[in-house]
Amino acid sequence: MVKGANVGLAALSEDVGSVMVSLGWSSATGEGDADVSVLLLDGDGKVRSDVDFCFYNNPVAGNGSVQLLGKTPTADGSEDRISFDLDAVPEEIDKVVVAASRYGGSRFGELDDLRLTLADSAGDGLVRFAVEEADDVSAVIFGELYRRSGEWKFRAVGQGYASGLAGLATDYGVDIDDDAAEEDTREQGEQGHEQEQGQEYAEEAPLPEPAGQPTAPARVPAQATGARADDVPAAPAQDGPAAPAKPARRPRTAKKKVTLPRTTRKSLADNESWRSARLFPVSALKSDRERETRATSVVLSVMAQVPEFGRRLTAGFGAPAGRMETFTEVTLPHGESPRRPDGVVRVERAGKLWTALVETKTNGNALKPDQVQAYMDIAARRGYEAVITLSNDVALEGSPLVDVRIDGRRKHKVALWHLSWAEVVHQAQMLIRHEGVGNAAHAWLLQELLHYLQHENSGCHGFQNMGAAWVPVRRGIDDETLCQGDARALEVIENWERLVRQVCLRLGGELGQKVLPVQRARRGSDPGARRAELADHLCEQGRLNAEIRIEGTPGVLAITADLRTGKLRTSIEVPSAEPGYPLSRVKRLIRRLAEAPADLHIETLVDGPGAGPRGTLERLRPEPADIVPKDGAQITGFRLSLFKGMGSGRGSAETGFIRSVDEAVDRFHAQVVAQVEAPAPRRSRSEEPTG
Fold this sequence. Notes:
By secondary structure, the protein is of the alpha+beta class.
């Protein structure tokens, strides 16, 4: 679509009761990011209250009809996905605005390939809109969904706001709840939003002009508008009576959410041999069939009983927001031999049913194409919407786990989706550790689910095997017989990507932060071609490389597995932009690394060609001047690295490669990255530079 164009969704697909909108971008460094927000507007073009403003700290709005699903990796970056159950949007809402904003003085001109895509409930892409001319703005309206004569339509907007999310939100009746947002706006030049002149919409009026305060404004904290908590200026001293104290900012939640503490209370057991009673026991599981049956029943039952969890898992599959029921071991006719899918998920909304068949695998068992094909055929004949596969494997873009035939003669479309056990664990962790659920009973249910899935006997441990090609590829690299174009190298690259994505899910669930793999591919590149190129590099260099971005960290965490030396390297480049003499900057870094391992390698990054000095933290603590450039080169940052022996096995056993990667990333984040993030200790006067 082009800017200003609009289209009726019903003309594009029959499956538009639920749609998925994705906002995407890429950057040369892999570090550029933005926050997605959605505003639900009434007939006056304003939000009704704070529940109609949906952003990262309030991810569900419109009675569950709008939900932010977070980021998903793509071939050249990542996409933020938003689920819209259009049939469930409140009747008072006439328009839904989809926007994104940047913070900390960043502009959208620093990002490439700004785009919006819209897909129907079957996952088929319907709309693509590329946003251009957004160089100097910090907030952009990508598009709008709006009603006309009972039909939902989409308009490509592409309007920028130089005043950031604060200016955009104010235009639609959102009142900024903190002076920090005003300060942030002033820093951006106190400019109004960019007026788009030159193009009229074909049917409707243009976007509203900046308006004053609404009658009943929504209250939004500063962190939603791009100002961080530590950016809030201190109140100046005043003469005369003290001004009334400003109330503390409340959390952006409609009601209090329940989370569980990380540490459990002291046990009342006499000794460690006493085992706590569990809702979902695992001790009796003896066969793969028993594991599959138990795991399916456990997950589906918790999905039905904990609305936040069930909605989190199904929204991305095009399911509406409604009453959910789940079933196991259902018998369905299929020719001469009936089929029994592992489970069925049903969601009812306004008298309409959405149904998905579920096929589950545990341990290292692979999905069977003939089984999945049979369930796709059954779903098409019975008018069901989806088939969901659930296993330890991780799906990759452009590389389906199961190839199925789609009968184009059938009018009814069935979507095939895949879910990893690692993603189920991630979503449960995010809810009970960080975001919260509706009540304590739901939190306890999720805790029991987590205990079950993470138990060694459940068979639901996520990706655990680098595949049959792992050992031959390692041997081929050792004896230099592995040639470019070898299909086994491509298999290792695909499994390495699966492992990295699982590391991101696990770490993100523990931290409660966005953790995503960084893809530095060319814009629009084919995922298969990108992996083939990486496979050739593996044959030539003998190394596997990956980068992950952790929200709030100063740089990108790099992982290198050198198959020739058997070493794993985890590293991060920390910029050094603070003022001061070179020695003072080095000392500040070393003070921050007071609890880091002594074998941490530190390399000084300098402006210009050539490498800077380097050394281990153990040696640099007494002699920090050793990594100050002797030629006076300007310091641009520091590279911090840890090395660890690499497991040789293809699995996740004690000596396995997968476990060694997990341990290396965990150690580096806990002992290095977390130290760099923490504020530096206060320096004494004797350490100040003297000239």
